[in-house]
Amino acid sequence: MKPQNRLTRRYNRTLLCCALASCLVIAAPNAFAQSTAATIRGQVMVDSTPAADARVTATNLATGLTRSVQSASNGSYSLVGLPPGSYRIDVAAGGKTSSQNVTVQVGQTATLDLGVGGVAETPTAGDVTTLGTVTVIAPALVETKTSEIATYVTQKQIETLPQSSRNFLAFADIVPGVMFVRADNGETQLRGGAQSANNVNVFIDGVGQKNYVLQGGISGQDSSKGNPFPQLAIGEFKVISQNYKAEFDQVSSAAIVAATRNGTNDFTGSVFWDKTSTNWRSRNVFEERNDFKQETGEEQYGASFGGPIIQDVAHFFVTYEKKKFDIPRDVIPGQGYPLSAFGSDQVGHFSTPFDEDLYFGKIDWLIGQDHYFEFTAKRRTESEITNVGGSNTLEHATSKDNDETRLDLRYQYTHGDWLNDAHITHEDATFNPRPLNSTVGYVLTRNNEWWNTILQLGGGADYQNKGQKGWAFQDDLSFTGFEGHALKMGLKYKSIEINAAEQQPYNPQFYYNIDQSTTVPFTVRFGAGLPGVGDGSITSQNKQFGIYFQDDWTVNEHLTLNLGLRWDHEATPAYTDYVTPAAVVDALNAVDPRGDGTQTYAQTLALGGIDINNYISNGHNRDDFKSAWQPRVGFSYDLAGDQRHVFFGGAGRSYDRNLFDWLQLENTKATFPTYQFEFNSPTHPCTVGVNNCYQWDPSFLDPATLYGLASSNGAWREIDMLSNDLKTPYADQFSLGMRNLFGMWGHDWASSVTLSHIESHDGFAFLLGNRRPDGSFFAPGTTLGAPWGFGVPGFGPLILGTNGIETR
C-alpha cells in the first residue's frame, strides 16, 4: 500500500466529480441493497471535544448522490446505505467545517473519526487518481472492527487479474477456503470449505440468486460452461467465507456479495474481444490419421455503455457479453475395442458448440436526498451440445438449453436515522436438456452386461424440463437513532413455482453383445408414463418466508458486538402432500417370496435397521421444517481504540435448503418409471414370461410396443421414498482471530490471522434400501456386492432419501 498525501487545495465540486468519473470509467457501482451497501461510522470531534449535533454529509464523487446525518450527543454518527465507491465526506460543527475523500467497498462497515478545528484522522491507505493537473485522493478505508471473515475483490483486480472464463466468480479463488473449479469440459462451480457447490449463494445488489431446483448453488450453474452474470456489469464484490450477519439466508458455506455497476455523470463505455482459433493449435492423433482438422476454438466479446440521464439525478448502464465455444471431444470405444471397427462418423475427434448471450441493464433515479429508485434487468440465453466423448457418439448427444430472466425494482427511503430498502423481484429460470435425435438408442456392450459399454449410438436418453418462476418482496429497515446501536431488521416473502419433468430414458435403449449379435439385443431399458397417473412431471407452488433482527452495538471505543437472529421457512406442497402409491404400500407389506414364506418385505427391511413406515406418506403425516432458528453472534475488541490491533471472533448457525431436484424424484419416478426387459435368443437364453423375459421380435423396436407392455407391468420400476421427517441442512461456524495495521519500510500494511472451524449437518443423501432376506446389505462374510437383486417384490430397487451427510 502506497503512503498518501492529502490535498492542499480544494476544487469546485463539479470539477472533482467529472475528474474522478472520467478516470474511474464508471468503476464506482451504485448498489443500494443493504447487504452490498457500505456504512461509514465514527465520532466527530471539535477541538478534541465530542461534537453534538454535527452535520456529516457523504457525496458520491461519480454520481452526485448525497447522504447526510446528524451526530449524537457523544459525537457519534453512522452513514448507512452507501453504494461502494469514492466519497467526499463533509462535516460541519460549531461553525467550523472540514472535508476529506475516502473510498468504501461493497458491504463494508468502516470506522472514520472526523474532526473540525483540528486535524481530522487520515485513512492509512487508498487510491490516487490523476487527471492532468488535478489529483483526487480517495483513500480506501480499512475495515478492522468486524467479526466477518471476508475478502474484497475490487474492480482493479477484476480488470487486471488473469482468468480465461470471464466468470467473475473465478476471482473468489484468491480467498482462503473458497475454490472456483473449472472442469476439463469447461463446466464451472464455486465451493466453500468442505461443503459442496450447492451450499453457496450469490447476492447481487442484495438479491439472492439461489438455485431452488438444481445443483450448483446459483441459478443456471448446474453443469454449465456459461457465466451467471456479465462480468462487465460487476463493480466489485465481497466473499464472506464465514460469520455472515443475520441478513443472509439460504447459505451455509461461502456468500458472494456483489454490487453491479451503473452510469455516472459522464458518458463512458468499454469493449473487449478474446479469441482462440483452430489454426492456433496442432493436429491431434485423429486429425493426423484422417488428414482433416476439426473446427475448435473459443470466442468471447462484449461491450458496455453508461452515462447520465439527468446530471446528479438519474443514470443508465447497459452491457452485453457473448461466449461462443467449439469444444473438442474424442469418441473412443470402451472395453479396449479397436477404433478400426467403426467409421470416422462414429469415432474420432469432434467439436461440440456452446453459445451464451448475457444482457444487463440498469436505470437509477434519485429524487431529492430521500427517495431512490432503481430498476435492473438481466437476461441469459444458453445452448449447447453435450454428452459427447468417451463411448458417447455425436448422434447420441444431448441438446441443452439454459435460460434465465431476472428483474428487480427497488425503492429506498431515507429520513434522518431511518433507512428503508425494499425490493420487488421476478425470476424465470429454465433448464431443458433433451436428446439431439428422437430415435431408439443402440448400445454396444460385451458379455451380455448392459453396463460394459463399448459405444452408444442412436437417440440419447436424457430428457429434463426443470425451472423456477415467481416473484418476491423483501424489505430491510435500519435505524441508527439509539446511541451506540445500529439496528437492522428485515423480512422476505417469496412465491415461487418450481417444476421438474424427468423422463429417463426418454428414447428406449437397446443393448447388444457386440461379440454375438448386432441385430438381436439382449436387453432394453426405457421409461414410460403410467396411464391415468402421470408423465414424470411435477409442479410445486412453494412459499418462502424469512425474518431477522440484528444489532451492531458499539459498546465503547474498544468493544463492538454483532448480535443477530434469523428464522426461515419454506413450504413445499410436492413433499408434504405426496401420497405413497397404494401398490407400493401393498408390495412392502406382502410376503417376500425370497424369505421363509411368512416374512413381509417391510419386516426384512426392519431386520436391516429400516422402519419403512418412516417413509410411507399418506398426505397428512409430513410437515415442512419449522425449526430454522439461526443465532449469529460476533465481536471485535480494539486493544488501543485506534483500529490498529483488533481481536475478533464469532459463532453462528446458518440453514440452507433441500434441492427440489432430489425431492421431486419421489413423484416423477412413481409416474414415469424405468423398465428393463430381457430378450430370449440363442446367445442370451431366458425363460419367457418369467422376470420380464420376452421372445425377441423386431416389433419391439417400435416404442409404442414397449409402452403397451409397460402399462401392465411394474417389474423393475424404481421406487424412491423420502423420509417423513426431512430436515433442512445447516452449518455451525466458529472463529477467532486478530487483525493488525502497522507501518514498515515506509508503507502501511494490514494483516489478519484467523482460526476457523465449520461443521455442516443434515446434508441430503440417497441410500439403497434393498436388503437380503436376513436383513443384511452384503452377503454374509463379505463387504462387496450391493443387493441390487433384492428390491421390493414385483418392483425394482428401493431408493431412500434422508438426512445424513456431515462435513468438517
Please sum up the structure shown.
8% of the residues lie in helices and 48% in strands. With 808 residues, the protein is mainly beta. A hairpin with a 2-residue loop joins β6 (85-93) and β7.
Please give a structural write-up:
The protein starts with 12 loop residues before the first helix and ends with a strand. The protein is built from 9 helices and 41 strands. The strands form 7 sheets. It has a 17-stranded mixed sheet. Strands 27-26-30-31-36-37 form a 6-stranded mixed sheet, with helices on one face. The model is unreliable at 1-33 and 119-135 (pLDDT under 50). Strand 26 (441-446) and strand 27 (449-458) form a beta hairpin. With 808 residues, it is mainly β. The protein is globular.
List the helices and strands and how they pair.
Blueprint: H1 13-24, E1 38-46, E2 49-50, E3 55-60, E4 66-70, E5 76-82, E6 85-93, E7 96-104, E8 109-111, E9 114-116, E10 127-131, E11 134-138, E12 149-153, H2 155-160, E13 178-182, E14 188-192, E15 201-204, E16 207-208, E17 234-242, E18 255-260, E19 268-276, H3 285-290, E20 297-310, E21 314-331, E22 348-367, E23 371-386, E24 398-415, E25 418-435, E26 441-446, E27 449-458, E28 464-479, E29 485-502, E30 509-513, E31 523-527, E32 537-554, E33 559-571, H4 573-576, H5 582-589, H6 601-607, E34 628-638, E35 645-655, H7 660-663, H8 665-671, E36 674-680, E37 693-695, H9 703-710, E38 719-722, E39 730-744, E40 747-768, E41 798-807
Parallel strand pairs: 1-8, 1-9, 15-18, 26-30, 36-37, 38-41
Antiparallel strand pairs: 1-2, 1-5, 3-4, 3-6, 6-7, 10-11, 12-17, 13-14, 15-16, 17-18, 19-20, 20-21, 21-22, 22-23, 23-24, 24-25, 25-28, 26-27, 28-29, 29-32, 30-31, 31-36, 32-33, 33-34, 34-35, 35-39, 39-40, 40-41
